[in-house]
Design a protein that fits this description.
Structural class: alpha+beta
Number of domains: 4
CATH topology of the largest domain: Rossmann fold
Length: about 550
């Protein structure tokens, strides 16, 4: 069968599965081998989806290629043939049953022999979209940068970027695209504008493994703390795995730099790599793009993904197995549960004796605040601190604050809220109700500066577990909190299988011994990861609960 290059124009709307079939057929045309009677390993490489590849694992193992031969073949990957260029409109029905539209912008000069950088571009204005219908021309438009493949997915009211379904959608789109086009697995980034920028933060905390970096433009991290978004499973520490490039405007009517800057500073203090480019005169737009574009693209170029990082930190509150059927679903749990980061899978939660004390990016240190010296419930004083400004003025426990500087205090309003805008040194007058009699108090507002407890940024919906890993040679050192069991995936590119592997957890040796390469493990994770640069030859399961 001879496949010709498709015309260089926008093509008809086809399904992602069909696009993947095209990739398999293209590979067949290029190799002349991926036919029904081809060797199982070639069929595996030409599989149209993760589940299709997983279903071939048994036949590949039975055919006996040997681990090293299979490993080399997976490193080479499939051979790509002709593929459609220009604006390619596609659909993806995620494994949770939701249908998504998306568009690829493929360079007209696409060459199947080259590996291409990819940028996911998440749009803004999610709340104004009532359905999954595509909007606009489907092109990257004014935000075009380096030559690459642009992926433009769509979100809407019922499937915003900050949903598990959209994370699953991006992962499945990337898998389908990699089966059709020659993608550089280590140069796939997620960017977005406004709601899309906020969505980039969400994806970074939910699914880090396939992506090199996250680039939120005019987004605001703390939107995700809203009561209708925060599901109790937003883990700030997960941002520490990948670099972030952020832009915000000083005159942005929604998220001005004045409110964004403190959180960027907090991320940096907490170990997140953030390259921040505030635009003092910019509003909620991307008029600054021509000036920032080269810096943006240089950042992407200089921060390729490390597929097998020597340090990892990951936190999750869910470990149920999801993300597809069969071996692909079990290997790729992170697609929905968020319990995997590269070569770490958190299998079970539960506090353990000797759990580590880990600094938490969810706790934001607050500066000392003025303290008048009263503790109130609404306008009723129930405690006056000895030696405080309030005691010196004459406030007593049991007083009801009626007026402040001749302004009535609404019922239920705390006095601390009233004092927020009062400058130290100001003359103040309080009218209080004491023993059912009015008493007027006056003096100077001279509060003490008192420490303030850390602010908890995101809610907690239940127990969570976290693992911090460091690899040095064949030794893995882990600090864990709230984790009962986890799995380490070992790659021949990272570990020396001829030597023993040691895993030390919270100061105690949890595993020590030789590990054998296993072709079934290699194929299981290759099916779901579809990644020539991240291949695993063995699994080490660490059960902390059993060690008690």
């Amino acid at each position: 069968m001879l496949l010709r290059r498709a015309p260089r124009r926008a093509g008809p709307c086809v399904t992602a599965a069909f696009a993947a079939v095209l990739a398999a057929l293209a590979a067949a045309a290029a190799t002349g081998a991926a036919t029904a009677d081809a060797p199982p390993l070639e069929l595996f490489l030409a599989a149209s989806s993760r589940d299709a590849a997983a279903q071939l694992v048994d036949s590949v193992v039975k055919s006996g290629p040997g681990f090293d031969a299979a490993y080399r073949a997976l490193q080479r990957g499939r051979r790509y043939g002709a593929a459609q260029t220009g604006v390619v409109r596609l659909r993806n029905k995620t494994s949770d049953g939701v249908e998504h539209h998306y568009v690829l912008n493929v360079p007209e000069t696409y060459d199947a022999a080259r590996r291409y950088q990819v940028r996911f571009q998440l749009h803004g204005g999610v709340g104004g979209r009532p359905s999954n219908a595509p909007v606009g021309t489907g092109t990257i438009g004014a935000l075009a940068g380096a030559e690459q493949i642009y992926v433009i997915p769509y979100a809407w009211n019922d499937a915003p970027w900050w949903s598990d379904d959209q994370v699953l959608n991006l992962v499945e789109i990337l898998d389908a695209t990699k089966r059709t086009y020659n993608i550089d697995e280590n140069r796939v980034v997620v960017s977005g504008v406004s709601d899309g920028g906020t969505g980039a933060y969400w994806v970074a905390m939910r699914e880090t493994t396939p992506f090199a970096s996250f680039l939120p433009l005019n987004g605001y991290w703390m939107v995700l703390a809203s009561g209708d978004i925060d599901d109790g499973m937003v883990f700030a520490n997960n941002l520490r795995n990948k670099p972030i490039f952020a832009v915000n405007g000083g005159r942005d009517r929604l998220y001005p730099t004045a409110i964004v800057d403190p959180y960027i500073a907090h991320m940096k203090r907490g170990g997140v790599s953030v390259d921040y480019h505030p635009q003092p005169e910019a509003g909620h737009n991307t008029a600054w793009w021509p000036e920032v574009k080269d810096t943006f693209e240089a950042f992407v170029r200089e921060h390729p993904r490390v597929p097998l990082p020597d340090t990892l930190t990951w936190e999750t509150g869910r470990t149920n197995r999801a993300g597809g059927s069969g071996e692909a679903g079990r290997a790729g749990q992170s697609s929905q549960t968020g319990n995997r980061a590269h070569w770490l899978i958190i299998d079970a939660l539960g506090a353990q004796p000797g759990d580590a004390s880990l600094t938490d990016l969810n706790d934001m240190a607050m500066p000392p605040a003025p303290d008048f010296g009263v503790r109130t419930v609404g306008s009723r004083v129930n405690q006056v601190m000895p030696g405080s400004n309030a005691e010196k003025i004459g406030v007593k426990p049991g007083d009801g604050i009626v007026r402040f500087d001749d302004k009535p205090i609404p019922s239920g309003l705390d006095l601390a809220d009233v004092l927020e805008d009062v400058a130290p040194g100001s003359a103040i007058t309080l009218l209080v109700a004491r023993n059912n009699e009015p008493v007027e108090l006056s003096g100077t507002y001279d509060p003490q500066l008192a420490p303030v407890p850390p602010r908890h940024l995101f809610a907690r919906g239940g127990p969570s577990g976290r693992v911090d890993l460091t690899r040095t040679g064949n030794t893995v050192t882990a600090a864990t909190r709230g984790v009962a069991a986890f799995t380490l995936l070992l790659s021949p590119a990272q570990f020396d299988f001829a030597k023993p592997v040691t895993v030390v957890v919270n100061g105690r040796t949890a595993f020590e011994g030789k590990v054998e390469k296993n072709i079934r493990t290699l194929l299981k994770y290759a099916a779901v990861d579809n990644d020539r640069t991240m291949l695993f030859g063995a699994e080490v399961h660490v059960d902390l609960a059993r060690r008690r």
